[in-house]
Amino acid sequence: MHYYPKPILDLIDCIAKLPGIGVKTGERLALHILKSPKAEAEKLARSIAMVKEHIRFCSKCFGLSDKPVCDICENPARMPHVLCVVEQPADMVAIEKSGAFRGRYHILQGVLSPMDGVGPDKIRIRELLDRLHEEKTEEVILATGTSLEGETTASFLSDRLKESGVRITRIASGVPIGGDLKYIDQVTLKRAMEGRYAL
User: Mind listing the domains of the chain with CATH numbers?
Assistant: First the structure.
């Protein structure tokens, strides 16, 4: 791509490093930024700089925040006795968008993955245990993913939390709405059968 000037090549290279974006998409986005009004490009650059400068992890839940404690943790209307444990801030956002949960969160910042060298000390498990001692938590909802790592993390947490006397629950998983049974994998079908309920 030596037919582009160096500043454009540098921009393409930076964009192409973003997850899910390769060189072709990086090239397309770089050219879009080049064609856009200067004010729009400057706003994008300022937004990136502001995020890097002002966004931090909440000191309680480890979600993203622009203050020491995030709005969800500070909200007195949230159920203080129910804690939903998720892998990443994006998982918390997904649950919030559903409107199905009004408690508080704890973001692990990852999952256990021995193959990748991620043990209990590399994610926010100790902080979770500390919170249970400090706060009057009655229920912990394990909302990690259904990947092997997510299931391993949920199982590990379940074992560790049993000693606390707190009620431990796991989010349900099974056949999605509109799903055709013949296309559903065996693990999902097994979970759906195990998690059946009376009508």
Answer: 6-54 (1.10.8.420), 68-170 (3.40.1360.10)
